[in-house]
Amino acid sequence: MDLSQFLERVTPPEIQKTVQRSTTKTTVPAYPREYLADLTPWLGIDEEIKELLDPHLNHFSRRFLRAAEVIEDKIDTKSICANESEVVTLGCIVYEDPTLAILREVFSIRCDFTNHRATNNIGDPDRVFFTFNDETTRDRSRAKFLMEYKTPWALRMPTNIITYFNRKRGDQSDKVVKAISQLYGYMTFNNLMHGGLCNYEVLYLLRRTGDTGLQISRPFLYSQRGIEGPIAALTYICHYSATEETFHYSPVERGPPGIHTFVLDDLEVEGTWDEDIKVPWANMKLRLLCPVSKNIATVMSGEVVPRQRRRFRYQKKAFFKVYDITQPSNLEAADAEINAYTDLEALQGKYIPTLYAAGTTLGSLKFLVLEDCGETATDENIDSSFWSRARKAIDAVHACGRVHGDIKLENFAVSNGIVKLIDLGSCRLASETDRSRERSSLRFLKRDWEETQVGDSDR
């Protein structure tokens, strides 16, 4: 089977919904409206798709036939959908799987789609496209492209989405406006150029331009086949995202205001890193550099620097914990962690990180600006003296009537023999029984570590 036959063969089924349930995801905008200008058409995208795929339409591979058969078998069991989660699952089969097959077979791009929690990104997109930095270790790149899926009955696409959006863009109750705003937010939070919005029946590709511009493609209908269909379009945009440094010159200016660097608009905690000087947080920028981890919140390394044309004599390395507070549960978690740092203020800098500042930005993200406490503890960078210092940190938290709530090796940081408890997201008031259990958890960790040391010495 060659590529042209493969593009013709993969035929998405018509969704058979059992219960028409709406979704709450579309009702929460992820980015303030005033940061996005009117939508404009993405002209020339069909020519760009044709330019990429035309030379390869005769590419023959038995893998295409096998992939088509596997996709068809999966479709037979997944075409009945009742909610957004099931639409996402079906979209993964009929849109993502054939796209991945083409990228791997024709362009030798090692890549995949996954859910947002498996990659280091800010926000809560449905699907994230990434490449493998190293095929041997399967190390993932940062997110390259984001997809948002909606149910066709919860998000009915208008005939002319550009005219509709530009007329309704101030209406926060409109689901089309909110869906586009949400995707734009995720694209800008993660400094990405491209995104995709799909209600299964139709796929739109979006491209950021300039500081606040957004272009949108024509609708790619799931009923369209071949080089004009959504699989060809998705293949093009993923290929572009994976190879954008060398493929086509892009007129898009990266990094609109507040993306590479953030400013705290609403301060809840306003601390300092030096007893002799008060930090003018209103005049400081948070410069995010590298993602460290992602769970409920994204942890980023970076530094605090003065804003342009502001004089300030310190430039401080820091860690940033970033919560997407468009999700109510994330807002509660962020507030709980800030409260924990506040209640344990006497321990900051000695047993737990110093909280330099906490606040919101863009009305959608909550930042905790934290002390850089060194390396995360691992089996390789600790010695026997680590455990007594770790116990002192835990005892100090317990003396305040709290438990850390998640004792594991990676929730300690070490630097020049100093050990601090990090990640207070689960810290809470607790009974003596809870505190006893936490001390036991540390003993178990120590026992396991000692056993690995004995095993290493025997080899």
From TrEMBL:
Could you give a GO molecular-function term held by this entry? protein kinase activity
Q: Which domain of life is it from?
A: Eukaryota
Which parts of the sequence belong to the Protein kinase domain? 262-459
Q: Which Gene3D superfamilies match?
A: Transferase(Phosphotransferase) domain 1 (1.10.510.10)
Under PANTHER family, the record lists: SERINE/THREONINE-PROTEIN KINASE YRZF-RELATED, SERINE_THREONINE-PROTEIN KINASE YRZF-RELATED
The molecule here is called Protein kinase domain-containing protein
Query: Lineage from the top down?
Result: Eukaryota, Fungi, Dikarya, Ascomycota, Pezizomycotina
